[in-house]
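User: I've been trying to design a sequence by hand for this structure and keep getting stuck. Would you show me what you'd pick, starting by listing the structure so we're on the same page?

Assistant: Good idea, let's start from the same input. This is the structure you sent:
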Protein backbone atom coordinates (compact mmCIF):
# COMPACT_ATOMS: atom_id res chain seq x y z
CA UNK A 1 0.00 0.00 0.00
CA UNK A 2 2.85 2.38 0.79
CA UNK A 3 4.23 1.87 -2.71
CA UNK A 4 0.88 2.85 -4.23
CA UNK A 5 0.95 6.14 -2.32
CA UNK A 6 4.55 6.83 -3.31
CA UNK A 7 3.76 6.27 -6.99
CA UNK A 8 0.91 8.80 -6.71
CA UNK A 9 3.29 11.41 -5.27
CA UNK A 10 2.07 11.03 -1.69
CA UNK A 11 4.38 10.46 1.27
CA UNK A 12 3.22 7.56 3.51
CA UNK A 13 4.16 7.20 7.16
CA UNK A 14 4.83 3.48 7.60
CA UNK A 15 2.89 2.14 10.61
CA UNK A 16 4.33 -0.35 13.08
CA UNK A 17 0.89 -1.89 13.54
CA UNK A 18 -2.82 -1.20 13.32
CA UNK A 19 -5.29 -0.82 10.49
CA UNK A 20 -4.43 2.65 9.22
CA UNK A 21 -1.71 4.33 7.22
CA UNK A 22 -1.10 8.05 7.54
CA UNK A 23 -0.16 9.94 4.39
CA UNK A 24 1.45 13.37 4.04
CA UNK A 25 -0.34 15.19 1.21
CA UNK A 26 1.77 18.37 1.33
CA UNK A 27 3.95 17.14 -1.54
CA UNK A 28 1.02 17.52 -3.94
CA UNK A 29 0.74 21.28 -3.46
CA UNK A 30 -2.99 21.38 -4.17
CA UNK A 31 -4.44 24.84 -3.50
CA UNK A 32 -7.71 24.50 -1.63
CA UNK A 33 -7.84 28.06 -0.28
CA UNK A 34 -11.14 28.71 -2.08
CA UNK A 35 -12.91 25.90 -0.19
CA UNK A 36 -14.77 26.37 3.10
CA UNK A 37 -12.95 29.14 4.94
CA UNK A 38 -11.87 28.25 8.47
CA UNK A 39 -11.73 24.49 7.90
CA UNK A 40 -8.40 22.66 8.28
CA UNK A 41 -6.56 21.70 5.09
CA UNK A 42 -6.93 17.95 5.74
CA UNK A 43 -10.70 18.30 5.95
CA UNK A 44 -10.80 20.22 2.66
CA UNK A 45 -8.36 17.82 1.00
CA UNK A 46 -10.43 14.75 1.90
CA UNK A 47 -13.58 16.44 0.63
CA UNK A 48 -11.78 17.42 -2.61
CA UNK A 49 -10.32 13.92 -3.02
CA UNK A 50 -13.70 12.22 -2.59
CA UNK A 51 -15.25 14.52 -5.21
CA UNK A 52 -12.31 14.65 -7.65
CA UNK A 53 -10.68 11.25 -7.30
CA UNK A 54 -13.52 9.12 -5.89
CA UNK A 55 -11.21 8.01 -3.07
CA UNK A 56 -12.04 8.38 0.60
CA UNK A 57 -9.81 8.93 3.63
CA UNK A 58 -10.08 10.38 7.13
CA UNK A 59 -8.78 13.83 8.13
CA UNK A 60 -6.22 13.74 10.97
CA UNK A 61 -7.04 17.00 12.74
CA UNK A 62 -10.18 15.70 14.51
CA UNK A 63 -7.84 13.40 16.45
CA UNK A 64 -5.55 16.27 17.54
CA UNK A 65 -5.73 18.73 20.37
CA UNK A 66 -5.49 22.49 19.77
CA UNK A 67 -1.74 22.49 20.43
CA UNK A 68 -0.94 19.91 17.71
CA UNK A 69 -3.71 20.49 15.16
CA UNK A 70 -1.53 22.68 12.90
CA UNK A 71 1.18 19.98 12.76
CA UNK A 72 -1.22 17.43 11.27
CA UNK A 73 -3.20 19.59 8.86
CA UNK A 74 -1.41 18.11 5.83
CA UNK A 75 -1.93 14.47 6.89
CA UNK A 76 -4.81 12.13 6.17
CA UNK A 77 -5.30 8.50 7.07
CA UNK A 78 -6.43 5.50 5.10
CA UNK A 79 -7.86 2.30 6.51
CA UNK A 80 -6.40 -0.78 4.85
CA UNK A 81 -8.63 -3.45 6.38
CA UNK A 82 -10.87 -3.63 3.34
CA UNK A 83 -12.08 -6.18 0.82
CA UNK A 84 -9.54 -7.03 -1.87
CA UNK A 85 -11.85 -5.50 -4.48
CA UNK A 86 -11.89 -2.19 -2.58
CA UNK A 87 -8.10 -2.16 -2.28
CA UNK A 88 -7.78 -3.01 -5.98
CA UNK A 89 -10.06 -0.09 -6.88
CA UNK A 90 -8.02 2.24 -4.64
CA UNK A 91 -4.83 1.04 -6.33
CA UNK A 92 -6.24 1.92 -9.76
CA UNK A 93 -7.24 5.39 -8.56
CA UNK A 94 -3.76 5.97 -7.14
CA UNK A 95 -2.05 4.65 -10.28
CA UNK A 96 -4.06 7.13 -12.36
CA UNK A 97 -3.72 10.00 -9.85
CA UNK A 98 -1.25 12.04 -11.89
CA UNK A 99 -3.09 11.44 -15.17
CA UNK A 100 -6.30 13.16 -14.02
Amino acid sequence: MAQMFLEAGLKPVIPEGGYFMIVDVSTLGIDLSDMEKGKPYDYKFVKWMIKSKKLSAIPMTPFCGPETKDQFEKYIRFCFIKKDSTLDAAEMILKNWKKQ
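That's my pick for every position. To get oriented when you compare it with your attempt: Helices lie at 2-7, 41-53, 84-95. The two ends are 20 Å apart (CA to CA).
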